[in-house]
């Protein structure tokens, strides 16, 4: 079975949701025209890291994002891993939230970022989630994570052991640490014997620069695609049959010793 993924490496207009929703909607259309089964976006694409302005900018209960992604998925008949967006819930609590839609516009998964990044003050404004995200798209078992989660292999293993074939990581990973990003993405693919689709943004905000390097990595840690530093779509076809040849000889999930470390 093959599965075509479109990596949407976009710039994000800080504090300008209207512009960002337009960017995402157009990218969905472009990915569908290119024949992708799923399109994937980066982290916090509706607002960027305008954390001090969340009272004005955050999406109430994710309503606008869910309406936008559902409509775009259905109209273009393409699945969407919706990066993540700033949302606000009852009581005024803010979250960094992923929404996933199938090609018919149905919500198939959501996830609130579990690990909050203090270096960018995320923990001062946003509430941490406490549940993982495991779902299917086009019959492919999948899981999603957000940015700083990448540094916690135990969290990936907790979710991946449910049988994830494709793992999505959406991020705003700054330029100075991009080599760590690439190393960690490869490691998560190897240790979980899964394809990893890791999407980062490009551009700048008030305090940080971002240089992309969105990656698609196979279960052996080989980089299938690196989007470099350009804005735009990168299309990659995943051959899911490769999973059998990797998992058979080295059954890491079977050989685990959870009695010692879980």
From TrEMBL:
Gene Ontology molecular function: hydrolase activity
Family matches, as Pfam families: CN_hydrolase
Membrane-spanning residues: none
CDD domains hit by this protein: nitrilase_5
Keywords: Hydrolase
Domain CN hydrolase intervals: 3-240
PROSITE patterns registered for this protein in UniProt: CN_HYDROLASE, UPF0012
InterPro entries: C-N_Hydrolase, C-N_Hydrolase_sf, UPF0012_CS
Source superkingdom: Bacteria
Family, as annotated: Belongs to the carbon-nitrogen hydrolase superfamily. NIT1/NIT2 family.
Database matches in PANTHER family: DEAMINATED GLUTATHIONE AMIDASE (PTHR23088:SF27), NITRILASE-RELATED (PTHR23088)
Name of the protein in question: Carbon-nitrogen family hydrolase
Organism, scientific name: Limosilactobacillus allomucosae
Phylogenetic classification of the source organism: Bacteria, Bacillati, Bacillota, Bacilli, Lactobacillales
